[in-house]
Amino acid sequence: MQGRTRVPGDKSISHRALILGALTVGETTVAGLLEGEDVLHTADAMRALGAKLERGADGLWRIHGVGVAGFAQPAVPLDFGNSGTGSRLALGAVAGCPIKATFDGDASLRKRPMRRILDPLEKMGARVVEQAEGGRLPLTLQGAADLVPITYEAPVASAQLKSAVLLAGLAAPGETTVIEAEATRDHTERLLKHFGAKITSKPHGEHGRRITLQGQPELEPANVVVPADPSSAAFPLVAALIVPGSDLVLEAVMTNPLRTGLYKTLAEMGAKIETLATRDDGGEEIADLRITASQLKGVEVPPERAPSMIDEYLILGVAAAFAQGTTRMRGLQELRVKESDRLAATADMLRINGVDVQIEGDDLIVNGKGTVPGGGEVKTDMDHRIAMSALMMGLASEQPVRIDDSGFIATSFPGFVELMRSLGADLA
Ligand code: S3P
Predict the structure, then answer these.
(1) Is the CB of 389 under 6 A from ligand 1?
(2) Which residues does the chain have with pLDDT short of 70?
């Protein structure tokens, strides 16, 4: 793995930029938007709700929004494809509009829990008119013109849940507060500030935050620059660590501390990741990173680190398999409700390729031997990150690794195969 590259824009920020642009009167521009299928579904949903979104030939997105609580009744069901983020954030944004909207998605999204989002939105005054069993998609939400602000103590560490409540809170008069026991990614808070909303965030307990938003702001159109996605950068980064002789530079990777738990963990494992240059771009810290092949060792990953690396356990599992010694990743209950059951999927992916791995309660234990036999075919289960993690494992395993379906990679990382090949990866 050799060369210099930049992975596509951050998925979380891309969804949020489109949704906030759609809630703002005037022209918002977004540079570096992730044009993956998940985000394009959100763009289509914003159009169906009355906002105008266009992509210029220069790649810049221009959004003319409708204003807070200004969404129009959509004529068609909103299809969010594979995307938990798009659907959950949009539920929050729709809750404060006096319209009825149906939310739907693919077979994977239809299995994912939505009750955690609907509970606070119902407390604020939105109504669920129809829903599949357990509050799942497809569901129809009736928004309310007179939403009430709430103080909500999040029962799970979820940035999507926090963001849905805050986006609903935009439409409610007075202060909406979300209390999280463990801080989750704060892109919604940063972007709300960037669009002119009044929002404060204070420490709460040992690892948490208390976030308060002043409702009914006049959002101001903004220019958003989307940095490279650290969750996407994780794939070439781990590949460079495990493929002998690698020397790779990843440019402009977002290094928001609420997203870089994997980077911290890999450093503890002995990874050689050098920060070449840091800067601030559009309200987020970014850095160019140089990665060289490294002999890794097993470590213990504490449960409180999970929110800052929640999408990275699959690829950490791969790194752990190539490490010497045991890596214990603790407190992974939220992995069970991702695009697939990622706790089981990580174990299956590794086991079928000859790695010694166990699940104990909510912990994943990987006994690394420094090498991986490979030779297995991994079932990707409509999950982009299983597909990419398995392929990275195959770059360094003794026998190649196969995956059953590469189609879902395009949800978050369009051009993944071409980018990896340009760095020397042998993907056929
Ligand atoms: C995301 C939050 C996380 C993460 C997802 C993106 C976001 O989900 O897994 O890929 O953009 O807010 P949860 O909030 O459900 O943990």
Answers:
(1) no
(2) none
